[in-house]
């Protein structure tokens, strides 16, 4: 049986939540339908959490942190659980590939490629158990003879993830949180609860102590209950800038900890020495990833004015040839958008682009040969002014805006003229020039001649693209609190 032919979700517990190490019944009979974006049919339904369910999950996480064994284990002991989770994530690869395309529209082949690296996130943090400096000696400056910094778990974490890449985003929240000694309430998006439920099954299989990981699915209104609960020490959120601002405001009221990975409107700066055909092929190919539903997409193409028309023509030529269709078809290059409201949003921005005066070079509509599914044609606008809405607001779909610049200084100004600062790229044959221009771009990641994001090093944004980093050693810091300890006499286990 092929992956595409098996429409039964390979998940147990669809009608329950995973709380306190057990599958428990919901507080209401309400459910959420998960709609397959390529067919517009219900794939499966899950229980919908209410305030009482969130409170129960937080209570389980709080008890597991305050009274359970998890924070008392050594980092090496917790690392063994991470290694077991890694092995089980790899074992469930085929199941994830079944579910992911039917929730977000990602190509099955792309999902398979991404799943190859996700287990490594858990082993990476497991390895940090032995190499990270959990305690460091410091010289006291205001009395006492021996000082030290101890890095301790922040406490109960509320992890809120979006629908576009849930398995990846779970890994880079859950792995560092667990290594640090935190307990977690994982709130799945209503559109894509499959990966969180699979992770709950994995937690049960590896014997993670009860309450260390709790998983439920709730709509956005109920999610606020998790953010407001004073028993939650930290929120780790990936999603829109608008939602991130609200979370930051709520957490500020009670001085709670939070890290935010938010939206983007990232620029690709094409310098005057780079081949436009190569740039167009790279950019249009990258924009096919999850149908452009990626916060770090390079959607503003900044090019010298004298090369503008050629850039538009090249992008239109490559983007118009992209084959849309069934995410499980190996010949398809881009799947549908994840949901009807997302396609409505993209279509509204295409109309805005037309009304603002941009030149529609290709796309702009629904593919005529696909009667079902939330598909949208890959779209390129030329002659875009950077002040227009299609250049300033995140569209979250396969829509590119080509913006002419007078010179290199103007290109840098345009690239930085945004409230966002998540990603960027510089296309040039000269790496030194790429380093110089890239160093002046206000973005959390800057790539050279390609679309790059690297959670292994660290991922996050400047400005309204977020606060904090995910991945790498930097991603661990947000799950730790620093404690200063000062002694008159040296303890026997004082760090060297």
From TrEMBL:
This protein's UniProt keywords: Oxidoreductase
Highest rank taxon of the organism: Bacteria
Stated family: Belongs to the aldehyde dehydrogenase family.
Species of the source: Actinomycetospora flava
Position of the signal peptide: none
Name the UniProt record assigns to this protein: Aldehyde dehydrogenase
Annotated PROSITE patterns: ALDEHYDE_DEHYDR_GLU (PS00687)
PANTHER family: ALDEHYDE DEHYDROGENASE (PTHR42804), ALDEHYDE DEHYDROGENASE-RELATED (PTHR42804:SF1)
